[in-house]
Amino acid sequence: MTDNVPSVEQITVFIDDILATDINTTEGKKAIADIMISKVYVYDDKLTVIFKDKDGKSVDIPLSAVSDSSSADCAPSALGSQAILSTNHREKV
């Protein structure tokens, strides 16, 4: 069980990497989303975001809030890696 426990040095490096992330770039936003978000479900009228925490907390976001937001460009970056994998998988089949 203790094999899965990170060392103090590993935790320190992880936190330093997060603090050094530039959240004003698309890459930085994606990196933070990858750390915090476990799953995103897309419905006709909303997104449901499941966070990576011990309780698996979620939040529902109306699609109107995403399309009306001036920061809507961060939504595709949060889904980008998964969308690319899905597209590549379909092309290979």
Overview of this protein structure:
The structure is a single chain. The chain has 93 residues and is α+β, with helices and mostly antiparallel strands. The chain has one domain (2-92). 53% of the residues lie in helices and 18% in strands. The chain has a three-stranded antiparallel beta sheet. The chain is flat and about 45 Å long. It starts with 7 loop residues before the first helix and ends with a helix.
State the main characteristics:
three-stranded antiparallel sheet; flat; 18% strand; alpha+beta; 93 residues
Question: How are the secondary structure elements laid out?
Answer:
Layout: H1 8-20, H2 26-36, E1 37-42, E2 46-51, E3 58-62, H3 63-68, H4 74-92
Antiparallel strand pairs: 1-2, 2-3
Helix pairs in contact: 2-4
Average residue-wise pLDDT: 74
Q: Give the tally of structural domains.
A: 1
- Helix content estimate: 40-55%
Radius of gyration: 16 Å
Q: By helix and strand content, what is the structural category?
A: alpha+beta
Question: How do the strands line up in the largest sheet?
Answer: 1-2-3
The helix count comes to 4
One letter per element, helices H and strands E, the order comes to HHEEEHH
Number of strands: 3
Give the low-confidence spans: 72-93
User: What fraction of the residues are assigned to beta strands by DSSP?
Assistant: 15-25%
Q: Give a quick account of the main beta sheet: strands, pairing sense, barrel closure.
A: 3 strands, antiparallel
Shape assignment: flat
- Terminal Cα span: 39 Å
